[in-house]
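Marked as duplicate of an earlier ticket. Keeping the data here for the record.
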Amino acid sequence: MFKLTRRQFVAGSTSLLFTSGSLARAAPSGELRIVALPSIFGDMYNALRDAHQGEHKATVNVDTSIREDETAITAILRSAVVGELPDILFISPNYLRVFADRQLAQKLDAFQHNEADWGGNFAPTVMQIGGFGGSTRGLGFAVSMPVVLYNLDLLARVGGGEPPESWEGITALGRKIDELREGNVVGAFMEYDNGGNWTFHGLLNGFGGRILTKVERDIGFAGPEGLAALRVLRDFGQCGQARVDMSRDQARQAFSAGQLGILCTSSSSYAAIEKRAAGQFAIGMRPFPVTAQAGYLPAAGPISIMFSRDPQQQQRAWEFMKFASSVPGQTIMATRTTYLPANDLALKTRQLGDYYASRPNVRALIPALQKMGPWEAFPGKNSVKITTVIKNHLATVVLLKAAPEQVLEHMARDVTDLLPLH
């Protein structure tokens, strides 16, 4: 296990107490050291460890004591200064850049090329999710995608049938629900305050846009795709969201209470929302629309990253990462969490086929796994500040305080000023 030093603790990681051991302490020979987030899925990671140890006779030490990505990043970057890191980290994909830019995340392409039947055992998404700078720096493990939740009872009241497949249809339905003006019901709500601007990425990427240009020196969202994304946000404001500026947690509670007709959120939040709403109304769930041929959805959910530099330790790390993303590993993950498999070959097994057959809303997301891609991040020391700047601009659109065209211009200017080399 891992523990922060007193100096690290005082420096700011006051929310974290590792149970034993130290990031700065060398592990016994042959021991594989893993930090796995989030902590709420500790039982799942331990099940992976036990299954892997049973097959490989390896000693695997898994620390599942950390809940927040930012806390893990702080501890790991400090440990890198003294040359001691875990062999593997499971963390949200938008933080891959933090480690890739510092040359801490190892390239995995050579390991993959040495696998005799990689394509027969792993779907392309496993490599795509962890792509960075033209190479693979992480393996896809678990997937959460941006989704649209529907209160089917309210849909029926306004004559809605099957959930629509376009943003125009979704927001038109939201306006009809909002026009009911019954109690505190709001037609539709888009979570715009996600960490890393995730739902904005979902809109932008679905229209075929990217936050950066291919050379990653300039913004890529200032064109028609970015404008289309902001116009969707404006439309949600017109569905009643402008009247009630809630946080995403408040919006999820409101939906569970039957006070929202449509909610755009993450698929990983569905289980908790469904549990709270049980017995009150029926829920439908669909992935965000992807309207462009080159469009995709940004994958949330942990990826695995290798830090090991020693060749023998790298091979041990690779074997665990490969197992986690294999069909058996994905089955363990999928049946113990609300995530979907990154390796959709696991969905062809009878076990997961039966598992999802009784979960039609989750099953409806499976086709969208073919449309998943990387959740990108901005480079440089201002990366976190940029996401805050974007979130503030998004708020002005969804609250109907400024037109999308005006906000896009200002947002492009403000983000460009914060990027490196500008």
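See parent ticket for discussion. Residues 1-26 have pLDDT under 50 and may be disordered.
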